[in-house]
Each structure stands twice: as structure tokens, then as C-alpha cells.
Amino acid sequence: MSSSDDELTGEEYLFKVVVIGDSAVGKSNLLSRYARNEFSPHSKATIGVEFQTQSMEIDGKEVKAQIWDTAGQERFRAVTSAYYRGAVGALVVYDITRRTTFDSVNRWLDELKTHSDSTVAKILVGNKWDLEHIRAISPEEGKSIAESEGLFFIETSALDSTNVQEAFELVIREIYNNVR
Ligand code: GDP
Ligand code: MG
């Protein structure tokens, strides 16, 4: 390995990513599935962890994402500006079985717009794909709002792991492409 390769190996990125969306859509479980490969069938109001850090490699470089989870404040519509401060990526999550959570997506996007830079990388995440048999929102509906708002779109299941890593990594790659 040449010395310039050694220097490249030392390059490091740290990106703040926020996870937003209505209460009980599966935000905390998406994060615990991604960062620790864990799923909890019982919703815990407060986990006490503000963020988790997860690394991936892009172009041979270590890229770290510091992914923030709400401690349940979204129930009181009180996610603070500190939560969004410095975020360069966001996952906007709804539950494919509950229309009200899909109807809230625009409100979350507005809030994101208010508190962060317009270049923030965004993905719309329809979670609980394992409950496909009782879905209330078609993939086409999700895709359509994502396209009109300029977001990536993906359906996931934190329960069976479907597309969870893909969702986070799509955002992290997009951030990387934006700053590089
Ligand atoms: P949050 O309030 O958005 O952080 O949601 P939680 O992660 O606490 O999840 C709320 C509830 O939905 C919990 O009972 C979870 O076990 C459940 N849940 C989360 N993700 C999934 C999923 O992909 N599939 C199913 N079936 N349940 C899920
Ligand atoms: Mg939560």
C-alpha cells in the first residue's frame, strides 16, 4: 500500500441523521434493528439513548452516521429544534397499516424544512411491511408523495429486517454524495 493510500484510509466522515414520524410507527425499532440487530415487541416510552453511531464503508472510507431517535416527544408534538440541529439526513417514517401516520408525513416534512438545511438527504419509509395483509397505504401512494417531495422511498420491516439496512444506507450514501 502506498503512503497516499494510507492517508486515504485515515479519512473519516461523521453525519447526523434524524428519524422522525408519528408515535409508534417503528422509529426506535428501525434504529435498534440497524445498529444492534435488535427488535422489541413492546414499545418503550423512553429508552434513554439520544443517538446511536453506526459505521459503513463507502469508496474505501469509513463513514459514520450518528442516528438520532426521539425519546417519544413526538407524542406531544414537541420535538425540539436541538433534535434537528446539524442534521444532514432524515428518515421520515409512517406505518403502512395506519393512514393517520401517512397523513402526517407532510407535517413532518414541513417541520424538517423549518429546522434544517434544504440539502438534507431524505427518505420516506413505509414501515411494518410484514403486516402487508392489513396495509392501508399502497406502495404506489408512498412512491407518489416521495416523488413529488423529492425523497427516496422504501418499505421496511423492523420486525423481520426487510430493507432496514438499505433504508439507512441509501440516506448515508446520498449525504456522502452531497458533501464529497
Ligand atoms: P416509535 O414510537 O416510532 O419509536 O415506534 P416503536 O419502535 O416503539 O414501535 C411501536 C410498536 O410497533 C412496537 O410495539 C413495535 O414492536 C412495533 N413495530 C415496530 N416496527 C415494526 C414492524 O416492522 N412490524 C411490526 N409488525 N411491528 C413493528
Ligand atoms: Mg420511539
Set out the fold topology.
Elements lengths: L2 H7 L2 E10 L5 H10 L14 E8 L2 E8 L12 H4 L4 E7 L3 H5 L1 H11 L5 E7 L11 H11 L2 E4 L8 H16 L1
Parallel strand pairs: 1-3, 1-4, 4-5, 5-6
Antiparallel strand pairs: 2-3
The chain binds guanosine-5'-diphosphate and magnesium ion.
Guanosine-5'-diphosphate (GDP) binds next to helix 2.
Membrane topology: Lipid-anchor
Family: Belongs to the small GTPase superfamily. Rab family.
Keywords: GTP-binding, Lipoprotein, Membrane, Nucleotide-binding, Prenylation
Structure description:
36% of the residues lie in helices and 24% in strands. It has helices spanning 3-9, 27-36, 81-84, 99-103, 105-115, 139-149, 164-179, and strands at 12-21, 51-58, 61-68, 89-95, 121-127, 152-155. The longest helix has 16 residues, at 164-179. The protein is globular. 39% of the residues are buried. The chain binds guanosine-5'-diphosphate and magnesium ion. Residues 23-29, 40-43, 127-128, 130-131, 157-159 line the site of guanosine-5'-diphosphate. Keywords: GTP-binding, Lipoprotein, Membrane, Nucleotide-binding, Prenylation. It is found in: Endomembrane system.
Summary keywords:
single chain; 180 residues; alpha/beta; 7 helices; 24% strand; globular; disordered N terminus; binds guanosine-5'-diphosphate; binds magnesium ion; nucleotide-binding; GTP-binding
**Biggest sheet overview:** 6 strands, mixed
Shape: globular
Question: What is the residue-averaged pLDDT?
Answer: 90
Task: Give the ordered list of helices and strands.
Answer: HEHEEHEHHEHEH
Find the structural class using helix and strand composition. alpha/beta
Strand content: 15-25%
The radius of gyration computed from the alpha-carbon positions, rounded to a whole number of angstroms, is 16 Å
Unreliable stretches covering 5 or more consecutive residues: 1-8
Terminal-residue CA separation? 23 Å
Give the number of helices.
Answer: 7
GO cellular component, one term: endomembrane system
Membrane topology: Lipid-anchor
Family: Belongs to the small GTPase superfamily. Rab family.
Subcellular location: Endomembrane system
